Structure formats: C-alpha cells, structure tokens
Amino acid sequence: APIGFNQYGSPFDTSPATYAPISLTNLSVNLGGVSILNASLSYTYENFLSQIITAESLTSADIGVATGLITQQWWEMNRVYFVDLARSDAADREMSRNLTVSFNNNTLIPIDIMIFTVYLDKVVLNIQTGQLTKN
Fold it and tell me: Residue 68: left (phi > 0), alpha (psi -120 to 50), or beta?
C-alpha cells in the first residue's frame, strides 16, 4: 500500500470475511495453455451467473444465487469472480496442467487477490466395509 498499511493489517477490517467492489477487466484464464473463456472479459454479473450455473448443475452445491443470497446488487458491491474449469475430457483431467490467470486492475488502489482452485471427485463409500471406490 502507498502508506505502508494494507487491508489485512488493519484491526478495524473484517478481511478476509468481507470483499470489495474491485473491478477486474480483461480477465483471461488458461488451463494447460488452453483458454477457458472465449475472450478476455470485462467480467459482469451475467458472466458470473453463466459460470456458476454450470457448476451448480454438475454438483449438488448451491452457491447462493438460486436461494437469493447472491443478488446482482450484492455482487456489484462484493465482486467475486468464478470461472468453471470443468470443460475438459477425462484424459485431460489425468495430467497436471498449469493454471494462468491474468487481468487488469480497474481501480487506482493496490489489491490483494486470493485464487482458490477446487477439485471435485465423486466416490462411493461402502458403509459396511468402509471402502471408498472412485466412481
């Protein structure tokens, strides 16, 4: 930060439990050298919806849009960016690949970015034997 004081160092800040309305432009995500997004995005609420709807249909998780927890007004004040990386075939998932995320910070303040990658796998638990089998 310009004055040597950042968000995480403030005793008055609830970070990382709170977000900020930081606008990222030219968002580009590459997985194994292949672009996940069709083009660099000026990410909007509609982009957010299209990404999480795919994730919600593949899993039983409810991220919060269907229940009304994440509205457009909430998203615009608490920008959370979500990109679904599950658009690959089974052979691609067996190899490790590099994840590259690039964007432009559309604000005049320095920001800290946290990127979470979540890997989901389906297994079956036999409750009699305790054995896990990959499905």
Answer: left
**Residues across the chain:** 135
**Weakest mean pLDDT among 12-16, 75-79, 91-95:** 12-16
pTM, entire model:
0.65
pLDDT at site 102: 92
Token pair of 113 as six digits: 């970015």
Q: Is the separation of the CB atoms in 113 and 16 below 8 Å?
A: no
> Where are the extended beta strands (E) located within 12-135?
24-31, 34-35, 99-105, 123-125, 132-134
Q: DSSP label at 77?
A: H
